[in-house]
Write a structure and sequence with these properties.
Elements (H helix, E strand, L loop, with lengths): L1 E5 L3 H12 L3 E5 L3 H8 L10 H10 L3 E4 L2 H4 L5 E4 L14 H13 L4 E5 L7 H16 L5 E5 L9 H6 L4 E4 L3 H11 L9 E4 L1 H32 L3 H9 L20 H14 L5 H13 L2 H10 L9 E5 L14 H11 L3 E5 L4 H8 L4 E2 L3 H4 L5 E4 L11 H7 L4 E4 L6 H6 L3 E3 L5
Parallel strand pairs: 1-2, 1-4, 2-3, 4-5, 5-6, 7-8, 9-10, 9-12, 10-11, 12-13, 13-14
Length: about 450
């Protein structure tokens, strides 16, 4: 089976590579000539564990190819996936210019029945706009070539994207015709031989499922952060509360871990977009507005704790603060909407000197904040002569550090843990002034 995937960002490149791994002939398309040339040489522009090796192998074996010209290869494919970006507009709604540009290119170039599948996260109603754009282009050509549009939202977690794609919980596909349904079933069948589970829906429902899923997960995180903040005030331990409510089968244990706020490419953008979709339809998403508000506040919590520990924000001037973790989560270099960006800005505005370390996101941090911070060579270099250490991303190498080395290196043994990965009693025995989220 031959397919094309337009967009070689996170979703497009992972999806195309995984399809190729299962024997599909894939051509990845991008207008960025430099990116395509790099990919042809085996240079993968994003960080995802295991992706480099898989790209190289499938390219070498001829199943994964790269081009800048969709028109050149569209005659040879049955399905074109649109995996281009949908960045938020200034008002929070999704910007569909790239999605519609793909639709117009598709309409200008198809010569036989082909399916255009939207894999990008798009608001409900986008498929109708895509279909209209294709129809308009065909009318300009004076052609009546049959086609279908479909929606196939992605559910990839950064850091575990290959596993998520190769062994999915479910595949959601919104279609309008039996022909499109059969093609998509044939494409996904190799992934689901042991438990073939494609959920077919109408297209608006498929578009909504992606937003609803991410918004639910974001809601659970913000709910637990709210609970954690209250636990601190009333003397409860949020870890005990989490275990107590997570054991209820109606609730479950996942996404109940409090912390210093969620970030990344999906949750913040999708919550904003769903709120904006509701507004455009005359409805107010009251719960999601609160979710967003809680999360924005939570990103400031570690800074507020630090200020209290030092006796006020004015006492931050001239202090040296170490930060462990810059990416919004482990196993990625993605800093979009990361808590680290908020924390760095608050600290530098208060006059503190900030020294940072992250196992993979240092270059991304340099690109985003430049010389506003100092860059450590390793996690222990970051804490040298530090007045406080803020732990923002729970990378595995941060989980069991040498506290003896750290306390000897720091000016003052003050640790503020934004992910609750350390044992308060253990750090107390080490003579460390330890603060975390929602625990006594």
């Amino acid at each position: 089976m031959n397919i094309a995937i337009v967009g070689t960002g996170y979703v497009g490149l992972v999806s195309g590579t995984c399809f190729a791994e299962m024997g599909v002939n894939v051509t990845c398309v991008d207008i960025d000539e430099n990116k395509i040339e790099r990919l042809k040489k085996g240079e993968v522009p994003i960080y995802e564990p295991g992706l480099d090796e898989m790209v190289l192998r499938n390219n070498r074996e001829g199943r994964l190819n790269f081009t800048t010209d969709l028109a050149q290869i569209i005659d040879d494919v049955e399905v074109v996936f649109s995996a281009v970006g949908t960045p938020p507009d200034e008002d929070g709604s999704a910007d569909l210019q790239y999605v519609l540009a793909v639709a117009r290119t598709f309409g200008r170039n198809i010569k036989k029945y082909t399916v255009l599948v939207t894999k990008s996260t798009v608001p409900v109603g986008t498929a109708a706009k895509v279909k209209a754009a294709i129809t308009e282009e065909l009318a300009k050509r004076g052609e009546e070539i049959p086609f279908d549009v479909a929606s196939n939202p992605e559910f990839l977690k950064e850091g575990a994207a290959i596993k998520d794609f190769m062994s999915p919980d479910r595949v959601v596909v919104g279609v309008e015709s039996e022909e499109a349904r059969q093609i998509m079933s044939r494409l996904y069948r190799p992934f689901l031989l042991n438990n073939f589970r494609v959920i077919f829906t109408d297209i608006p429902s498929a578009e909504m499922i992606k937003y609803a899923a991410n918004s639910m997960l974001a809601t659970r995180i913000s709910f637990m952060n709210d609970i954690a903040n209250l636990c601190e005030l009333v003397g409860a331990d949020v870890n005990m509360v989490r275990k107590g409510i997570g054991s209820d089968s109606r609730i479950g244990a996942k996404f109940l871990y409090p912390g210093c706020g969620y970030g990344g490419s999906c949750f913040p953008k999708d919550v904003k977009a769903l709120i904006k979709t509701a507004e455009k339809n005359g409805y107010k998403m009251r719960v999601l507005k609160a979710v967003e508000e809680v999360n924005e506040h939570q990103k400031t919590v570690l800074f507020e704790k630090l200020c209290r520990c030092l006796g006020g924000e004015e006492n931050l001037k001239g202090k040296h603060i170490a930060i462990w973790g810059l990416a919004f989560k482990p196993e990625t270099d993605d800093m979009r909407e990361a808590t680290s960006l908020v924390t760095i800005k608050l600290l530098t505005n208060a006059g503190a000197t900030v020294k940072v370390f992250d196992p993979v996101a240092m270059d991304e941090c340099r690109r985003r904040v430049g010389d506003a911070v100092e860059y450590a060579t390793d996690m222990y270099d970051a804490v040298l002569d530090a007045d406080a250490l803020l732990m923002l991303t729970e990378w595995k190498q941060f989980r069991l550090p040498s506290w003896g080395v750290i306390t000897r290196s720091m000016k003052a043994p003050l640790v503020i843990d934004g992910r609750n990965i350390y044992d308060p009693e253990d750090l107390a025995h080490q003579g460390i002034d330890y603060h975390c989220i929602g625990r006594r």
